[in-house]
């Protein structure tokens, strides 16, 4: 049984679930590589110590990327009560915002 990778790694390796997503929103497949690189670099920036300004940019990039994904799904009509892509992506945007807002004072600018 194979496991599907999601997020930056899944996008970099063009896993079947991420390929389905770009087909739904009608993006070219190479867009997965671009977004995957950004997500991996953003995650590294948030996890490494110090560099508070870089972390601010990483959080902003993750949040705007997720909101952009929500908008992309909505614009192609992939919405409604059973639209997994919109709800899960919106949940990720909310988690990124909460992580940013609840980080320790020592990590704030």
UniProtKB/TrEMBL annotation:
Keyword Ribosomal protein among record annotations: no
Annotated keywords: Membrane, Transmembrane, Transmembrane helix
Regions that span the bilayer: 29-48, 57-76, 82-102
Localization of this protein: Membrane
Signal sequence, renumbered to the chain: none
InterPro entries reported in the protein's UniProt record: DoxX, UCP030066
Membrane topology: Multi-pass membrane protein
Name of the molecule in the record: DoxX family protein
Organism: Paenibacillus hodogayensis
């Amino acid at each position: 049984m194979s496991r599907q990778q999601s997020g930056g790694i899944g996008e970099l390796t063009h896993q079947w679930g991420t390929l389905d997503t770009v087909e739904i929103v009608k993006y070219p497949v190479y867009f997965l590589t671009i977004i995957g690189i950004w997500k991996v670099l953003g995650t590294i920036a948030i996890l490494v110590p110090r560099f508070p300004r870089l972390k601010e940019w990483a959080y902003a990039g993750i949040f705007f990327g997720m909101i952009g994904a929500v908008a992309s799904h909505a614009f192609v009509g992939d919405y409604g009560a059973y639209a997994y892509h919109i709800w899960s992506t919106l949940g990720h945007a909310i988690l990124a915002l909460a992580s940013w807002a609840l980080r320790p004072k020592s990590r704030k600018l």
